[in-house]
Design a protein that fits this description.
Helices cover 0% and strands 69% of the residues. The protein is mainly β.
Length: 107
Amino acid sequence: MNTNLLNNSIIIEREVTTKNAAGTPIETYNFLKESYAGITLRSGDTSFTAEGALPFNNVEFLLRYDSRINYKCRFSYENQYYKIKHIQVMGRKDWMLVKAIVWENND
């Protein structure tokens, strides 16, 4: 794999369950790492619902393999969050091809 393809800086965050003051579990995201990735926009569209127009994009991230990255992670790229839909390990755990969609709630 050509490392010249890894030309975009992304931030990877992992979901963590904590408790608020009342003891109710809440899900938050903590910084995991910053990495370089190749990013490819595969498709995009807008769905219309009662709430209004909801745009979505299907994006692929190509990055070096990291065993800490799983389905409880999300990616941040250019002030937009992406939810992981599929992780494909390539080679002998050298690369990861991660398919993701735009995260609906940017918190």
